[in-house]
Design goal:
The complex is a heterodimer of chains A (413) and B (305).
Chain A lengths: L12 H17 L6 H14 L4 H12 L6 H13 L1 H11 L16 H7 L12 H10 L2 H9 L7 H12 L8 E8 L5 E2 L1 H11 L7 E7 L3 E6 L5 H17 L3 E6 L3 E3 L1 H4 L4 H11 L9 H16 L5 E5 L11 H11 L2 E6 L12 H6 L5 E4 L3 H12 L10 H9 L1
Parallel strand pairs in A: 4-5, 4-7, 7-8, 8-9
Antiparallel strand pairs in A: 1-3, 2-3, 5-6
Chain B lengths: L9 H10 L6 H13 L3 E5 L5 H12 L3 E5 L6 H4 L1 E3 L1 H13 L4 H8 L5 E3 L1 H5 L9 E5 L6 H13 L1 E4 L3 E4 L5 E6 L7 H4 L3 E5 L4 H11 L5 H16 L8 H13 L7 H11 L3 H7 L2 H17 L1
Parallel strand pairs in B: 1-8, 1-9, 2-5, 5-8
Antiparallel strand pairs in B: 3-4, 6-7
Classes of the chains: A alpha/beta (413), B alpha/beta (305).
Chain lengths: 413, 305
């Protein structure tokens, strides 16, 4: 049974095909992953449903061009701009041509920022890795003792130059999370299980003698979710942490990063840029609450509701980076921490305030957080970051145990 | 018995789903129609309990095709998704061959033949059937890991599977593929690109009522209206897990079982566990909040009639 070919036997269908192609290009410029294959699929789809019904036409294109839920709004706007107003379309297409890029933005009120930005492609992404020679040069420039001092110096007391060097060190810090067993197997001569398939194949090759082949479970690092406080009280640290997060994100797969102050921002996508400067520029441009107040409870609630099921599903380890100073004095924080703790494999709280001797978690925010963390660690200089790395590699102690001493101290205070 | 053909238009698709007792939006019918007529997989994403899996079941039933279901889980591998050799039978065969006079090559050909192959869902889906190509439901793809997704890519673009010992199996007629995901992680674009995508949303009040009339016909009309009103209100509340359509239907069934003709605060409190699956959510809604929502729903229903 063939699909009704509405378009091919209609004069002027060439115009529509052309428009479909332009529409595909407009969507691609707006950031949707649209390639020539998709445009062809769109042509097929439109041929199948016909163009008699506008809503069918809309949903046919939707089924082809939209791949994720968050692309729906962009598609919707682009569709209505494109298929209703040909003048605007022409303007858009003009802007898409490289030689006609102009600096002033088209002020279509109904256009989303992304769509508008798409018409003015700014700087191209340059995800080139920095040349290796440069790193070696830096190595030579930084003597051992230099590095030693940097290791123990508090981030807060570093000069701009020292910070720059610390960033270099962080960039090269390994982040090996302890692997967890998956349900897949790999051939392993000392494995615990018999690999029957390999055994039988080998047996045939060697002539009937059954030499048992073995296999063992494959392991794989768990996903890592980083929730980092970027409020005023953390501002000295958060810049360096961003470098740390960038290094981690580019080092391994399944890392998700969220920043929070008064609101929660998912910056995972931006940290994936290879070049750290480009990545941090992008992050800076989307985060609107740098160095402001902190609403930990509210941000966590949003994380739990919108993101936890999507990023914590496969047994993620959560790094929760905050000083625990909360503008809402810990209101509503307890239950949200509880939920977070229950949804992840391991919850590690990194707190720069922990460097002070005799520190006891006294503030209301900290007290609300502490009962639900599995581990509580300082993170204020390079050495503590290094320790964190080794802690994540060690076999984990029982959940909640590692932070128990701190809880007692908090209660005593 | 003649098997119904693939519907020739969006309207027919809508009617087909309706015959399968599935109340669908026209937008969903468009996606289903495209997938059926252009023979590409249909990728359905949405919250749990909005009826994604049901679409595949209804399609199979309405089209008179066999439904083959592959439930995904972490670590799903070729042995449980595609095929596996029947090792114990192969070993017996080797033993028997040792006593006989057959040459090694014959034995090899023999034990890696289709006789010793255990076919799992993906391979089954490529086999020709009298009633027409089967409906292959790949359920909750987000539960599996990326390596399996990559494997699926090959199967879904060419509808063929290579078994090293046996050769390539290719489907004479590609199966109708429905993939569902609860979005506990993002599925890679490369896979989605080969599919028609549809986000299954919570239904509107009107559509949800239509669904209840079909799926829970035993419930009294007033009860159904109140149930739908209550659930729709809950979906705007700040809950960890919003109730899906499946929960609405379950709740209507539960209330009918308890001979409830109209919602009361007590009845809600007793049966809230059917609707909400997290203790925090239940604690939040139970008691005064439930009463408040119920009063609101009653007032709105009274105003509407």
């Amino acid at each position: 049974m063939n699909a009704p070919t509405v378009l091919s036997n209609r004069p002027g269908s060439g115009r529509l095909l052309e428009n479909l192609m332009y529409f595909g290009r407009a969507l691609r410029a707006a950031g949707l992953p649209v390639g020539p294959g998709k445009v062809l699929a769109a042509v097929e789809a439109v041929q199948a449903v016909g163009i008699a019904d506008r809503s069918d036409f809309y949903w046919a294109l939707h089924a082809v061009f939209v791949n994720r839920r968050d692309q729906r709004e962009l598609f919707d706007q682009a569709f209505h701009v494109f298929w209703r107003n040909p003048q605007l379309l022409e303007k858009m297409m003009g802007l898409l041509l490289p030689e006609m890029r102009s600096a002033d933005a088209p002020k279509g009120e109904e256009m989303s920022r992304r769509l508008a930005e798409a018409l003015h492609p700014g700087q191209d992404e340059a995800p080139d890795e920095r040349p290796r020679e440069k790193e070696i040069e830096l190595d030579a420039a930084m003597t051992f003792s230099d590095r030693e001092i940097l290791q123990q110096m508090d981030f807060e007391q570093m000069s701009a130059e020292e910070i720059a060097r610390a960033k270099q060190l962080i960039q090269r810090m390994p982040m090996p999370l302890r692997d967890v067993a998956t349900r897949r197997f790999k051939p392993d001569p000392r494995g615990a299980r018999a690999d029957m398939r390999a055994t039988l194949r080998a047996a045939l090759r060697s002539g009937g003698l059954l030499a048992l082949k073995r296999k063992s479970r494959r392991t794989r690092p768990p996903p890592l979710v980083i929730l980092c406080d970027i409020s005023g009280s953390m501002s000295r640290y958060s810049r360096l942490f961003l470098h740390f997060m960038h290094a981690v994100t580019n080092d391994r797969d399944r890392v998700y990063t969220f920043l929070f102050g008064t609101r929660l921002t998912n910056v995972t996508r931006f940290l994936r840029y290879r070049d750290v400067d480009i990545a941090l520029d992008k992050v800076a441009s989307v985060v609107e609450d740098w160095s402001g107040g902190t609403r930990i409870g509210q941000c966590l609630a949003e994380f739990n509701r919108r993101w936890s099921r999507r990023v914590l599903a496969q047994g993620a380890v959560v790094l929760f980076i905050t000083d625990g100073l909360d503008r809402d004095a810990g209101a509503g924080l307890g239950p949200e921490m509880d939920r977070l703790h229950k949804s992840c494999r391991r919850l590690i709280w990194l707190n720069p305030l922990l460097r002070y001797e005799g520190f006891a978690p006294k503030s209301l925010g900290m007290r609300a957080i502490l009962p639900y963390v599995d581990e509580f660690r300082p993170v204020h200089n390079l050495e503590s970051l290094g320790e964190l790395v080794s802690a994540l590699t060690r076999p984990a102690s029982r959940r909640l145990d590692a932070a128990a001493a701190w809880r007692e101290r908090g209660e005593a205070a | 018995m003649t098997t119904p053909a693939v519907p020739p238009s969006v309207d027919e698709t809508l009617a087909l789903l309706g015959r399968g007792r599935y109340v669908a939006d026209r937008s969903l019918a468009t996606a289903v129609y495209l997938s059926l007529s252009l023979r590409r997989p249909l990728f359905l994403e949405g919250e749990a309990g909005v009826g994604k899996t049901e679409i595949a079941k209804v399609l199979a039933e309405a089209l008179g095709r066999r439904l083959i279901r592959l439930q995904c889980y972490e670590g799903l591998d070729v042995a449980s998704a595609v095929y596996e050799w029947n090792y114990s039978r192969q070993m017996i065969e080797i033993r028997l061959a040792e006593t006989g006079a057959e040459s090694r090559d014959t034995v090899e050909d023999e034990i890696f033949s289709e006789r010793f192959l255990i076919k799992r869902p993906l391979l089954q889906a490529l086999e020709p059937e009298i009633a027409g190509a089967p409906v292959l439901l790949i359920d909750e793809l987000d539960r599996t890991d990326e390596p399996f997704e990559a494997y699926l890519l090959e199967v879904l673009s060419d509808f063929q599977i290579t078994i090293p010992e046996l050769g390539t199996v290719k489907a004479a007629e590609p199966p109708i593929v429905v993939i569902t995901s609860n979005r506990t992680r993002e599925i890679h674009d490369a896979l989605k690109r080969r599919c028609f995508y549809y986000w299954v949303d919570y239904p509107s009040a009107e559509r949800e009522l239509a669904i209840l009339r079909i799926k829970a016909p035993g419930a009294a009309e007033t009860l159904s209206r109140e149930v739908v009103g209550f659930v729709q209100k809950l979906r705007t509340a700040d809950l960890f897990k919003l109730p899906g359509v499946a929960e609405t239907i379950d709740w209507a069934h539960a209330l009918t079982q308890l001979d409830v003709l109209t919602l009361t605060p007590e009845a809600i409190n007793d049966t809230l566990g059917v609707l909400l699956k997290y203790q925090d959510d239940i604690a939040k809604v139970q008691g005064s909040e439930a009463t408040r929502i119920l009063e609101q729903v009653r007032a709105e229903l009274a105003a509407a009639s």
